Amino acid sequence: MNEKGLSFEYLLFPGxxxxxxxxxxxxxxxxxxxxxxxxxxxxxxxxNEVKTALLSILVCGEPVAKLGGMVPPLHAAVHDxxxxxxxxxYVDGKLSIHENKIGVMTxxxxxxxxxxxxxxxxxLTPVNPKPVKVRGSWSLPQEWGLACWVYLQT
Length: 154
Hints:
Blueprint lengths: L6 E6 L16 E4 L3 H8 L3 H8 L2 E4 L13 E6 L5 E7 L2 E6 L11 H8 L25 H10 L1
Parallel strand pairs: 2-3
Antiparallel strand pairs: 1-4, 4-5, 5-6
């Protein structure tokens, strides 16, 4: 986190990451993915500034000798002091910037899939629900599936 309240974090993104390739003679600014966090925190104070700046640079993958020459597969989250957040991913050599409306992300899969997957848990709650009695099911075993099926048949 920098003095303006902008934070940067990397999480693993194996199986999905492929950074941008740098064409010969390309005039745009290029940085290593290993320097992306330092670049963001040293130069910007808001998520909007980061989004705009990312469109004007290329980010290439840099092998790490201590990892056997592997290019670490990573994706990043950036948050600012106003509560705005983005997720930065490089998939198939292309930059993807996602608005992080939920405030969190995990290691892979890609962020857009993480949002889709949340739909599987739409009814999840941190509070235990109060018991509900389904009419006409008092003599059935305590099997909600069976009780619901019987209720739908009436």
